[in-house]
Design goal:
Oligomer: single chain
Structural class: alpha/beta
Shape: flat
Strand content: 5-15%
Helix content: 25-40%
Number of strands: 13
């Protein structure tokens, strides 16, 4: 689609070929890139379950004519966007039921009750923060909309977020605007959804629960901030089933996971954000897209050696299709997360283990047969060409020597290429020996951090010409 838009704007006619069921997403992508009504040709059926002969036959019968029409018919390629309401427009008046009904019709809500984002409520949410409401944070992909402080506040009001949560929401918006995170992949068909992890000395003060039920609804900060993300992805980034969200199943929206700061301080471990390069001691936010998770209940043992096999097995059990990311969709992009309860983290620390020691031990134990690894990246997947073996990948320098120690198909190989690619966080009930393993979606939503800045903004002061405040 991106290449088609460039060509069309240069005066070269194009036709984009899409699979059946993706037409509306393709049109929305074109609109987000500044061009409406791009010509499409549709391949009938899903390519993954057709033989080569069936695909060619359907292409001849149904698709070629669409390509010819798209390349020969005269069209006006002017951008037709602009039908959306502006920031301060009043789009509906009436009772609360009227507002909910209109928002449901327009697809602006997740289906649950919300706080109507009146102009007055949004202004009140931002009052006293010093933020310029119309400062552009970045461009939302793939919708092409501007991400503004105002739009952040609109969705914060809808989600019921407290005003003190605004710095957290702005940090999340910074991540969504960061190319490393790759928000444009948020609607891919495997249905991964974002996990947000907050860390730092102010997290408890902001109301985030990091103890019992750490991933359950109920704590206002964790729940409302997590809901904000889904609303923002829908309303600003365009991820609805009618357009950019093509998830086959999808995951339920996740509440925010808060790391247990008292344990990290007590045992001298770094936070997840610090492991990813964030400044030590700062309030930080980390986001990634997660495919699935596995609970590791009642982890039994009184030493690292006793509990490691179960923890490593959990990482293996949550890992499958994700192995494609090790090389096929972005070399060595798979980085799973293991969340330890504070009790388990303290057990490791009591025996003198650093977080690096834990990662190194998990790397050695989270292994599977080479034939299974190769099936995930070859025999069972069409995402990586060539059906190459792990030995082939080592020869090409795409994986370390560890993956080609022999030609035995039953040799055990790790699920990641290096120990540091296993990430560890600490959260949950301090008195329970449980853990949770998450598989991440690689370059479809890579680990990205942002600082939570709680200071009063100087945006508005800069707008009224106070260079002494703006540096």
């Amino acid at each position: 689609m991106r290449a088609s838009v460039v060509a069309e704007l240069a005066g070269v006619p194009t036709v984009s070929i899409v699979c059946e069921g993706f037409q509306r997403q393709a049109l929305a992508t074109g609109r987000g890139l500044g061009l409406d009504d791009l010509p499409l040709a549709v391949l009938q059926g899903h390519v993954d379950i057709q033989s080569h002969e069936e695909m060619i036959e359907r292409f001849r019968e149904h698709t070629i004519d669409q390509i010819v029409r798209g390349l020969t018919e005269t069209r006006d390629v002017d951008d037709l966007a602009g039908s959306e309401p502006s920031a301060l427009d009043v789009v509906v008046t009436g009772s609360i039921d009227d507002v909910h009904r209109e928002f449901l019709t327009r697809g602006w809500t997740d289906g649950s009750p919300f706080v109507p984002p009146t102009v007055e409520r949004v202004q009140a949410y931002l009052d006293g923060t010093g933020h310029d409401p119309f400062r552009v944070i970045g461009q939302a992909k793939p919708s092409g909309r501007d991400m503004t402080v105002w739009s952040v506040a609109v969705n914060a009001v809808m989600a019921g977020c407290d005003r003190t949560h605004l710095p957290v929401l702005l940090a999340m918006a910074d991540v969504l605007a960061n190319p490393q995170y790759g928000v444009e992949h948020s609607g891919n068909t495997t249905g991964a959804d974002a996990l947000v992890v907050v860390s730092g000395p102010s997290i408890a003060e902001l109301g985030f629960n990091s103890e019992g039920g750490a991933l359950r609804e109920g704590a206002h900060a964790n729940t409302s901030v997590g809901r904000w993300l889904r609303l923002y992805l829908r309303n600003v980034c365009g991820f609805t089933t009618a357009e950019h969200d093509k998830a086959t199943f999808g995951n339920s929206s996740r509440v925010v996971l808060a790391e247990h700061e008292p344990t990290l301080q007590a045992i001298g471990w770094s936070s997840l954000a610090e492991d990813l390069g964030a400044a030590a001691g700062a309030d930080t936010l980390t986001m990634v897209r997660i495919n699935s998770g596995v609970l590791l209940g009642s982890v039994f043992g009184s030493s690292p050696g006793e509990i490691l096999p179960y923890l490593a097995n959990g990482l293996v059990r949550v890992t499958g299709w994700e192995l494609t990311h090790v090389y096929g969709l972005g070399h060595r992009a798979y980085r799973p997360l293991l969340v330890l309860s504070p009790l388990l983290a303290r057990l490791f620390a009591r025996h003198g283990w650093s977080k690096d020691d834990v990662r190194a031990a998990l790397f050695e134990r989270a292994v599977l047969p080479a034939r299974t690894f190769e099936a995930f990246i070859g025999e069972w997947s069409n995402l990586t060409a060539g059906r190459r073996t792990l030995t082939d990948l080592v020869a090409k320098g795409l994986l370390p020597e560890r993956f080609a120690e022999s030609d035995d198909p039953d040799r055990l190989v790790p699920i990641v290429a290096a120990p540091e690619e296993i990430l560890v966080a600490v959260a949950g009930d301090p008195n329970r020996a449980n853990a949770f393993a998450f598989s991440n979606d690689g370059r479809h939503g890579d680990w990205t951090t942002a600082t939570i800045d709680r200071s009063v903004s100087l945006d508005l002061a800069c707008r009224i010409d106070r260079p002494d405040l703006c540096g």
